[in-house]
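re: ur question from yesterday

yeah so i grabbed the chain u mentioned. its 367 aa long if i counted rite. heres the sequnce exactly as i have it in my notes:
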Amino acid sequence: MQLGFFTMPIHPVGKDWRQSLREDREAFILADALGYSVGLCGEHATDRAENITSTAMFLATLIDATRTIKLGTGTLNLPNSHPVAVASQIAMLDHLLGGRFVFGISPGGLLSDAEAFGNLDADRNAMFLECIDAVLKIWQSDPPYNIRGRYWTIAVERQFMPEIGQGYIAKPLQRPHPPILVTAVAPFSKGVTEAAARGWEPVSANFLMPNWVKSHWPKYVEGCLRAGRKADPANWTVAKSIFVADDEKIARAYATDANGPCRNYYRSLFIKLTRGGRTDLFKAHIGEPDAAVTLDKVCERLIIHGTPNSVADQLLAFREEVGDFDTLLYAGKDWKDRELGRRSMILMAEKVMPQLNAAIGAEKIAR
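ran it thru and got these structure tokens back, copy pasting raw so excuse formatting
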């Protein structure tokens, strides 16, 4: 199993933005030094807590600060961007990273973003598909362009001057395009099926109950069958909220602190998602009443914490419940305590992962 890093950073609303950004960058740089395989981050334009406003711009600051880790948008919210801007900017980022780029995409889930960009009442799933289809068509073709859709028209015909290079929209270094990831945030996600049918790979969100994470694999298999390709667990990525400490009491205190980063993270998501009508994401089963879904239960069910031995055991139990997958994304949180935040990432890489992989290896040999 590979270890990756993912953050949709939720910081205290009053925290100095400069400090938040510095710490977010430091987490990615540390992940690279520790051998994490991939680092993904989200973006939102209208949130003081989730305050990386441009994933692409943020990742650009890490180009020379990292060496081997693949960096990706996790995700780029396509309805909020013009396909030409997406195609050209992502192509440049892929070149700047020397092909270390991973293209995570989604319709976007923050409703205040949708309202600000004017698509709150639009069919954002349709916008998402039209945007990515246009981006891929741009990358697959040469000018003159004439791509017409319901939401965007892309044309370079009258001002096409090939002799001086005018009118060309950039293509990425990785051809035909960088690997495409789609985050799955719903039980029995139809998006997973559609993504698999297109050759894209799913990432199961860290704020989903294990039974809903488990529901993604059959949907992925369904899409692969439609496309005539093998469904391989090596292409499934799962994110999880994890905190590791050298001492069990310290781990428990930090992970369960009412004003700590783990609980603050889920408090923010709990308010956003329940008010947005998505309480089902936090339910242990379909029939669970809305009133039974509380922040305490969400945190208890979704945050893994403890010493390296304890965390390894909990993650193996989680894997046993949801099924085999290739990449585990450590979900980053605010560094209320910088040293404990760093130490957790270090222990995850140096102590937890060797135990996980030894157990998984032994399991496969025994089959």
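noticed a couple things. The first helix runs from residue 17 to 34. also The chain has one domain: 2-244+323-366.
anyway ttyl
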